[in-house]
Amino acid sequence: MESTARAFKDNARAAVADPQLRRALGHVKVGFIEKRAKAAARLPEFEALRDAARDIKDHTLAHLDLYLERYEARVKACGGEVHWCRDAAAARDTVLAICRRAGARTVTKGKSMIGEEIGINDHLEANGITPVETDLGEYIIQLRHEPPSHIIAPAVHLTKDLIEADFRAHHGWLPAQRSLSEARELVDEARTVLRDRFLAADVGITGANFLVAETGSSIIVTNEGNGDLTQALPRVHIVLASLEKAVPTLEDVSTILRVLARSATGQEFSTYTTVSTGPRRPGDADGPEEYHVVLLDNGRSEMLGSEFRDALRCIRCGACMNHCPVYHAIGGHAYGWVYPGPIGSVLTPWLIGVEEAGNLPNASTFCGRCEAVCPMRIPLPRMLRHWREREFERHLTPAKARWGLKLWAALARRPAAYRRVTAVQARLLKAWAGRRGRVSRMPLAGGWTAHRDLPAPQGRTFHELWAARRRGVAS
Amino acid sequence: MTDARTDILAGLRRSLGRGGGAAAETAARKAAESAVDARISGHERHLIPDRSKLPPDQQVELFVRMATEQAASVVRVQSEAGVPSAIAEFLKAHNLPPGVKVAPQAALEALDWAREPLLEVAFGGAVASDAVSVTGAFAAIAESGTLMLVSGEDSPTALNFLPENHVVVLRADQVVGPYEDAWDRIRAAYGPGTLPRTVNFITGPSRTADIEQTIQLGAHGPRRLHIILVEEDARRGQSDGA
Q1: What are the residue ranges in chain B where pLDDT is below 50?
Q2: Ordered domains of chain B (ranges, CATH)
Q3: Superfamily (CATH) of domain A43-302
Q4: Any B CB within 8 A of A199 CB
Q5: What stretches of A399-439 show up as alpha helix (H) in DSSP?
Q6: Residue of A31, A195, A277 with shortest CB distance to B195
Q7: Which residues in chain B touch residue A68, judged by CB atoms under 8 angstroms apart?
Q8: What is the ipTM of this complex?
Q9: Number of inter-chain CB pairs under 8 A, A vs B
Q10: Would the pTM count as exceeding 0.90?
């Protein structure tokens, strides 16, 4: 997928000024947060389960090579194939080759973030194969030729009226008098259209939430049932997965599943958790004849040895973005690539380069809500700080910011000068603010005051107040 | 040029500090190998919530409560003899045509279908025109009101997803507390490390919240999930004598 992460600031400015997007994002702020809080409160063991889930993934990552070898051996023993792919291009070509061998004309797809990461739809289309997204949200954004704006709610940036317009534009057979103004009617329309696609597809592609070393299984967690029709009906099932999806045992998966749905949608358990192992067995009544796992590295093996290793614990629940004030303000598209929100700001610079995506780790107030809700306890703010450090070291920070920081650092190392300069500044700001006590325009800091006022200091610095107070106590 | 698999595994080992071939590293790798194998064969349980730690009859109550909360409907019958009538009643209640596609499982084939002469019963896999499917289950998990179904010669997976209405016949003795108990039953039936092609955990009917975060049932899978819970242990071979 083409990145627009470099244009993050322009993207964000446009997003904030978009009233339709504001309306759509209103649902995120309320719904997801309340539901997660209720689900967590209902399970007394929830916090302890988060610890257990973190420990499971830490153990797995520390032995990732060995678990992947064992996983692969089980897949083979069950008649499936694992295709190791270094990068997105290799994964795309592998999927295309499997589809061609199967003589595929149409391919149904369950939701897969790896599919987005490798840009599989465009690649298949360019080679004469029609990919059909079957998750409702993914179907809608495929009609619009848009990327997902959220990792579990891909069409969360859209309102009903826009979706109705898309359906009317693409489903030419719809009579004008047919009502499509209710969510129910839109769901039914998509259900009817996609039914035939499920039955006609030659290949079904799904993602994977987990790869189980004990059994050689891939697991998907969904609510609609589209992932199941995608893998049960066609002759070939392709699973798109990245290295870090591995877990040792079914018990390990069970523990992580207890925190996944609660953190994502606030459900006790998602409607469908599907464990797939190899192709159909001799005598089986249905199921695919071929089972392929496309196992993607794309920089993750190296990430494992970096200060970003903890981010590989991520189970893609979306809780970090659901609770992020920056995501609430700008939505997912502004981030410019596949993964939005706090986890996106950590992963994207690694996957497409800090030169391209350096703005993302800077778009954070370090409020810490993402880390507070992450079921895998990923220290997201700390990782954003690592990126800022790397950016600074590599001279990627804008000149103005670098000089500003240098000036501040020089001053901070000279306490006497620091006190004198800040004392003057505090008085100047007070005078500049006048009787309102607020500064609404400031030279050199227009970016700050363009969107909000700066509450002016009262005329004395903290140091001065503190010294005065100490004198007061002493006397 | 080496193949991708070798490359990726070597990259992982480099990142984990187990890259080279020195004696100390070989020893470290051996230790890691045996730790990993022990973890897989031991498949130890982690923290299990207290919620489902109950005597069997209360686990069944918990299952019914949790499944109902997730918008499944549950009806309890005394014995398997009551299943055909329960199916007919479900069809009537929802104004559905009197036809069902039933998984060709021995227990379902053995039901006394003649009790409902108006019910058209066909056995086999799902086709697009099937409105109602009837299947058994492998187990059910009380903790979250979840059914566990497995694929096999007599269990076509598409029956669980293609028709708009899915009826599941569940015996009370198939209900367990947590997921871990269900995995133990799977291991007992299929052997360690071995699973059927598909294991489906199903909690309520299909749903989506992709349009403005409002939940709609029946996205692609069934709109209705109806569970017929057979109270009596069927393996004792009793009938209700009606």
Answers
A1: 234, 237-242
A2: 4-42 (no CATH), 50-236 (3.40.50.10420)
A3: NagB/RpiA/CoA transferase-like (3.40.50.10420)
A4: yes
A5: 399-412, 415-433
A6: A277
A7: 9, 12
A8: 0.95
A9: 268
A10: yes
